[in-house]
Amino acid sequence: MKVAISLPDALLEHFDSVAARSGLNRSEFFRAAGARYAAELEGSEVAHAIDAYLDSRDTQLIEAEADLARDVTQRSRAQLATVTEDDEW
Fold first, then answer.
1. Does the pLDDT of residue 89 top 70, yes or no?
2. pTM over 0.85
3. How do residues 47-69 score in pLDDT, each as one tens digit?
């Protein structure tokens, strides 16, 4: 499929020069550049998704640790109250 894009002359000349030095024609250069850029963008999207997931897991773990700490504290106080109920303070 053929497409048309608009580029400033200087930029097109630069791309053509880079492509020629790399042994690519213009179409090969733009295919490779487009594929690489698309992969970069997709990788960025994946990285953001992973970061968001890890952030949510961190929040869940912090909440779970807080719940566990409250539970341990309550059980410890209850046990201490049972063990020391006959003690005079």
1. no
2. no
3. 888 888 878 877 777 788 888 88
CB contact at 8 A, 29 and 18: yes
Q: Which two tokens stand for residue 71?
A: 């539970």
Tokens found for residue 80: 């201490």
Q: Which two tokens stand for residue 74?
A: 């309550």
Residue type, 74: Q
In DSSP notation, 18-83 reads HHHHTT--HHHHHHHHHHHHHHHHHHHHHHHHHHHHHHHHHHHHHHHHHHHHHHHHHHHHHHHHHH
Among residues 48, 71, 28, 3, which one has the least CA distance to residue 15? 28
